[in-house]
Amino acid sequence: MIITRTPYRISLFGGGTDYPEWFRKHGGAVINATIDKYCYISATTYNKIFPQRYKVYWNIVELVEKIDDIKHPVVREGLKMLEYTDSLKLYYHGDLPAYSGLGSSSSFAVGFIHAILSLCNKTVEKQQIADLAIRLEREVLKENGGVQDQLAATYGGLNYFDFSHNGIQRQELRTAKLEEKLMLFYIGRDEDRFSSTYAKSWIDNMESKEATLKGIHQITKDALLIFQSHNPDLDELGCLLHDTWQLKKNISDMISDPLIDQIYVRARKAGALGGKVLGAGGRGFMLFYVPEKKQEAVKAALEDCHHTPFRFENDGTKYFRIS
Prior knowledge:
By secondary structure, the chain is α+β, with helices and mostly antiparallel strands. The chain is 37% helix and 24% strand.
């Protein structure tokens, strides 16, 4: 049996500029970090005397004879893309809700690909796993969105990814104190929320929002300079988070709503320097930069939201083989 553990991510700066439709023309960059909340996938073959060759356990239980009969799109199309033909029993578990802005769908795709390749005793580099996940989600399944989530889930850690028509460059970032300033709150799930739909609204507005996206790109580069400083003033990152949120809201009217705006104002009044909705927009998780002396006040101000403590993690996707 193979078990993969793949982290979720928080996006800090640059979201939207990682869409191929944008960066192939204009360039882009993101700063993101993976956290100690994970997607777990176990995969094993089993005795062929059982009547169904494929057993997939997620929100529903699927027991089918043919790959084409599998309802889960990533599993169905991923098995075909990887040319997998053996029997398969696959289980999924996630630490946090799906479709909540933490890149969970891409974490699933990365963990699934890693599990199947490991089950087949294929050793691949991390960049190959990320490339396959991007291909599966963006080319095979035709889902809208960027490419930062697959990269973050694969590599792990706090990273700066630079995008251009020439390729993707990764730079590891380090700061011991940043995670102590960040607070994560779950504000609820929009049952109709699907990140690909929200992302489509971004793509439809890209050319008309060129100045906004270029502003987001510049803020990301400004944030990188703070990370690279020998003695960084991390509070400046909090202010930049505020600036990037003001720009992000202008890309599409699906990103924010009156409830999100109200929560943001309450957090700022209580002491947060900046924040944002994670992911493509809508409900899910909000991230705030809050000086430590103000964190209790922010928790009190957002007592109707679910505070979710976390730490950074540095491993990215990992697999474990159980005999």
